[in-house]
């Protein structure tokens, strides 16, 4: 629960510190006195966004600090998960700098707004008039039913599973689309791949084939040239080899006379050996050289296949064709892999569908069981609030669609009087009836909620007299379970509080300020009397105020 609130340099508040107690506290004040400012300051502490308009003095920073007693609310896991120091009296501070930047702290540790907002969900529920209108929203109605049904943990499990289910469905749809697109190209790709595979291409073979083709295609010219070369090299009379030998013999005679001659002899000997090797190689080439028209035809056909494939795929080498073949093979394999992935995802989706159906059925059954409980509790409370003939018709039906909270659709119908048909809340309930229904809902949820603090901001709109007294009694009864605040214009409700705070404006020189103070017994009598009769307090108003307080 909130134990104190300190505000400095915010809106019309220069400096304010106020302590709060458990139980039921009421806050009153004239319209425009600053009640909304108090709520605005509290909203900043709970993580709402701020701007420079929040500053009373634009040259100084705004500081809002709230103390919360949290020992009974099992919040240690939140602090550990966010690496924050846990204190049973936790302090939340919000600072707005003149530059417009803001900072937030939990127990003096800096935090971001998201962390602050997450913690605030466990601390305070501020109920505004806008929330009363939201009672007609189906999600709000489901939240009410699920609180009574105890569906919180089941719905959380369902939501995690639903998120995974949707992720699988998204992947499956993407794969099916990819498969459809691939199938259209598959036949053509398979044809291209078959062509390349049939060609039995090997890296570097084009150069070898082209060389072999040139040899076979020019075999006669090659044969003639080789034979001529061998003749010149090995002729017994004028052949090069014979001449080299004669030169070698001549140099052998003079080699002993000079190192230069010996060097020439060595060199001619080397040339003779090299030329002899060349001659042998030419001779072997001559022996290998045959006229083979069939082989020439085969090589020509293979080269034609290669040239045709290169032209089709717009490349110039066999290596590039092999790369294309590899890509086509991968595309075929990828299509097979897609089919496997589709099968795995389909199986996963079927399992998740089964689990989702089971969870949503459990949620549905608990909701159905809770509806009579909710209806009866609402009727009992609303009868005390001047609605003796109120009736509710709440119908829940399962459909095939997975919603964020299950597979149910809801009809929450209402009738305030005998003989009138059921209708949607927002269409048939008046403002005063909506206020009373919302109070009844909050009173019921207080029994199921572990929330420390609930603030009602003018929930008494549209009611007065005896009904207001009953509303005050209900809120006082709720305060046995949690800390309750009621911002009200009705003296009947203000009188029910264990503590009574007044918001008022004061003028200091040319400056207007909003202030909040805890009223003592005598001040409280006067305040309630003024709420009854206006500024001029009559004796009867004072007596009426004392009667309400007693």
From TrEMBL:
One BP annotation, GO: SOS response
Boundaries of every RecF/RecN/SMC N-terminal domain copy: 2-506
Coiled coil feature spans: 321-348
Keyword Ribonucleoprotein on entry: no
Protein's UniProt keywords contain tRNA processing: no
InterPro entries registered for this protein in UniProt: DNA_recomb/repair_RecN (IPR004604), P-loop_NTPase (IPR027417), RecF/RecN/SMC_N (IPR003395)
Keywords: ATP-binding, Coiled coil, DNA damage, DNA repair, Nucleotide-binding
Listed GO MF terms: ATP binding
CC annotations in GO: bacterial nucleoid
CDD domains on file: ABC_RecN
Family: Belongs to the RecN family.
Biological function: May be involved in recombinational repair of damaged DNA.
Protein name: DNA repair protein RecN
Species of the source: Flavobacterium sandaracinum
Gene: recN
């Amino acid at each position: 629960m909130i134990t104190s609130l300190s505000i400095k340099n915010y809106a019309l508040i220069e400096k304010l510190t106020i302590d709060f107690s458990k139980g039921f506290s009421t806050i009153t004040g004239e319209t425009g006195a600053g009640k909304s400012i108090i709520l605005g300051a509290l909203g900043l502490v709970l993580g709402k966004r701020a701007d420079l308009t929040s500053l009373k003095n634009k040259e100084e920073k705004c500081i809002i600090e709230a103390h919360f007693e949290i020992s009974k609310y099992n919040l240690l896991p939140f602090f550990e998960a966010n690496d924050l120091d846990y204190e049973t009296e936790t302090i939340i501070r919000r600072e707005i700098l003149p530059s417009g930047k803001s900072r937030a702290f939990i127990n003096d540790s800096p935090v971001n707004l998201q962390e602050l907002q997450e913690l605030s969900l466990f601390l305070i529920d501020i109920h505004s008039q806008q929330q009363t209108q939201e009672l007609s929203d189906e999600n709000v109605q489901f939240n009410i039913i699920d609180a009574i049904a105890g569906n919180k943990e089941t719905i959380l499990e369902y939501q995690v599973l639903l998120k995974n289910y949707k992720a699988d469905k998204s992947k499956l749809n993407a794969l099916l689309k990819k498969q459809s697109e691939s199938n259209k190209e598959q036949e053509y790709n398979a044809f291209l791949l078959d062509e390349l595979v049939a060609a039995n291409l090997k890296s570097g073979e084009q150069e070898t084939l082209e060389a072999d083709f040139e040899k076979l295609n020019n075999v006669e010219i090659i044969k003639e040239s080789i034979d001529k070369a061998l003749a010149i090299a090995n002729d017994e009379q004028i052949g090069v080899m014979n001449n080299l030998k004669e030169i070698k013999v001549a140099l052998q005679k003079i080699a002993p006379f000079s190192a230069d001659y010996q060097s020439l002899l060595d060199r001619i000997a080397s040339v003779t050996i090299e030329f002899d090797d060349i001659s042998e190689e030419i001779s072997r080439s001559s022996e290998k050289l045959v006229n083979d028209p069939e082989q020439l035809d085969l090589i020509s056909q293979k080269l034609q296949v290669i040239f045709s494939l290169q032209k089709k795929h717009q490349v110039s080498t066999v290596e590039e064709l092999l790369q294309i073949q590899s890509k086509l093979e991968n595309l075929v394999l990828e299509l097979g892999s897609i089919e496997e992935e589709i099968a795995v995802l389909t199986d996963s989706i079927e399992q998740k569908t089964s689990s989702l159906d089971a969870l949503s059925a459990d949620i549905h059954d608990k909701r159905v069981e809770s509806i009579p409980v909710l209806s009866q509790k609402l009727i009992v409370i609303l009868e005390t609030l001047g609605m003796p003939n109120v009736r509710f018709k709440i119908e829940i039906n399962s459909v095939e669609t997975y919603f964020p909270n299950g597979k149910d659709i809801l009809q929450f119908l209402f009738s305030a009087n005998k003989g009138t048909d059921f209708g949607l809340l927002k269409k048939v309930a008046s403002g005063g009836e909506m206020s009373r229904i919302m109070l009844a809902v909050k009173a019921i949820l207080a029994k199921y909620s572990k929330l420390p603090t609930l603030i009602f901001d003018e929930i008494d709109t549209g009611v007065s007299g005896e009904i207001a007294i009953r509303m005050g009694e209900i809120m006082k009864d709720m305060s046995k379970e949690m800390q309750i605040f009621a911002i009200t214009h009705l003296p009947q409700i203000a009188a029910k509080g264990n503590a009574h705070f007044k918001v008022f404006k004061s003028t200091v020189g040319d400056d207007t300020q909003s202030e909040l103070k805890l009223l003592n017994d005598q001040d409280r009598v006067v305040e309630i009397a003024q709420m009854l009769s206006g500024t001029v307090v009559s004796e009867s108003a004072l007596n009426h105020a004392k009667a309400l307080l007693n």
